[in-house]
Amino acid sequence: xxxxxxxxxxxxxxxxxxxxxxxxxxxxxxxxxxxxxxxxxxxxxxxxxxxxxxxxxxxxxxxxxxxxxxxxxxxxxxxxxxxxxxxxxxxxxxxxxxxxxxxxxxxxxxxxxxxxxxxxxxxxxxxxxxxxxxxxxxxxxxxxxxxxxxxxxxxxxxxxxxxxxxxxxxxxxxxxxxxxxxxxxxxxxxxxxxxxxxxxxxxxxxxxxxxxxxxxxxxxxxxxxxxxxxxxxxxxxxxxxxxxxxxxxxxxxxxxxxxxxxxxxxxxxxxxxxxxxxxxxxxxxxxxxxxxxxxxxxxxxxxxxxxxxxxxxxxxxxxxxxxxxxxxxxxxxxxxxxxxxxxxxxxxxxxxxxxxxxxxxxxxxxxxxxxxxxxxxxxxxxxxxxxxxxxxxxxxxxxxxxxxxxxxxxxxxxxxxxxxxxxxxxxxxxxxxxxxxxxxxxxxxxxx
Amino acid sequence: xxxxxxxxxxxxxxxxxxxxxxxxxxxxxxxxxxxxxxxxxxxxxxxxxxxxxxxxxxxxxxxxxxxxxxxxxxxxxxxxxxxxxxxxxxxxxxxxxxxxxxxxxxxxxxxxxxxxxxxxxxxxxxxxxxxxxxxxxxxxxxxxxxxxxxxxxxxxxxxxxxxxxxxxxxxxxxxxxxxxxxxxxxxxxxxxxxxxxxxxxxxxxxxxxxxxxxxxxxxxxxxxxxxxxxxxxxxxxxxxxxxxxxxxxxxxxxxxxxxxxxxxxxxxxxxxxxxxxxxxxxxxxxxxxxxxxxxxxxxxxxxx
Lengths: 448, 304
Prior knowledge:
heterodimer; A: four-stranded antiparallel β-sheet
């Protein structure tokens, strides 16, 4: 009897225990607070970029210059907010010790960069840097570069790219160059020269002497080469200019007027429009065989072709529907499909390097706009506007556009023409300072 | 004789079984009710805390102490504990004070006594009857205590020999059943505070945290596919409403994708950013908001 009673009680107790456990689990799950955060802010990340330390005046000067360029790069991107050095509580420290994070947290710095420059016995320099996550108190990235001291500016851009990539997850675009048309003289006797500079406007120099008119420069996606058009004896020709060698060659003479040559993604061919017998169509040319292939056959004007990043499709503009609109077709000319349906005229489409967007110029209501839309034509957003804004070109990471803006200067018909960059939010527009008027920019890929 | 004895055994077992079934039924009911009850009970606790007159209060108070978790000693103790803070810092976040942990421990040691007392007291049948309607979850520790009582009971000479003694035995069984019922009807220690908050209070807490963190969540506009990345961050808070530690729970899913990793880190930074702290939460409900799971989903910002 006792055994039976005991068993029944134990059974009861165990049952109760089991149920209690179940209830307990349920209670725990229910007790936990779960918070859905669906909105944030769009503010630049506060970052502290310290002076790169070094021994001796040369290293100290190099360190100061490098950190200054990094700070400027990050600030210009609009995604970072470099904290004023004067606010720093902690100054230069060893690179081998963990920073005192509380000193950076007080400044609300969410990231911190420290580095060191050492000039080696062979005259080269070694540049080290570390990027710290101040809140998590962890190193996010740390790298070392060795190069000749004259490369200090490039090293600074490379460090900026590394920081940008680690914080945003996307490739940077600071170690890049811009080729554009530098303009001088009156509107009637305009001198246009091909010029090149770093993306921040530094290291500026001319590639042509201005004796002939140059237009529409474009970077090769795979080589340090530029295509551009030049009028030679009133005959437009397409040239290829090698930046490293300075060598220039004519791509070919074409029977009619040639416009806007652009490279294919592999750099082996160019795509362009040619006007022949009063009709403008789109063609490709193989750069090795010089063989030309016609892609469009329509009575309308088809122009401004641009390859998709994979080279399988082409976006262009055409007035075949009555007004100038954007179209997409396969690389062989088949499957033409209209993607823009808004009011106004769309022109100069440029496919984003990451493939998700197409930038364009739009003219409506007497104003020009630079905008972007999805590859399917949806989600059109106008980023900036002006009396004349033209020639959008993508940074290699597909998050920033550069274009030129013309605005009237006084009442004499004179105009200013300047380069600007703008990010995809449309909030961060910045002028790229050039020594003279500038137009038709083209952004290079990352320098190899 | 043997026949009557066997018959008695059968009767006892028959009587015993239905009890078991009844108890189980009772247990089942609480499960359902518990969910509903949480909000109701939530209202209750706040009152008892102020008015120690109620009979039920003493029971409730000892329970939370048992688990030694956080709830009972709300704001004031937290402040007091602050000074001794010099504890081993929380490894990762390196944020503020790990004070509560210390306090809790000290309390744990001292408070086990009151916990046992209420169990031993068993005012039996009346309580049991009252307890049924309340139906609360039971704490495993108390369950263990019941087991101990059981053991004691079995070690004592059994009172089932005479009919008179049987009558006395019934209350004993009742007391056992009551204890089981108590165990079942008592709120779990860790849930005590949460059971005392209403859904409205709960939503208010969530809103407080969400509203505080949003300004510190710096999303990356223009990033490809940013709207599709959902980051889950778990955080432990100190009694002063500051984040003590936070980590991305699904970090491994992002580790190989630099962009996703960057997005995850923006969420983590938002939680760790002291500029958006402390959260203005009721310290008396610390048990409820001590651990928080935050899900960062920027979909809404992209108009989806």
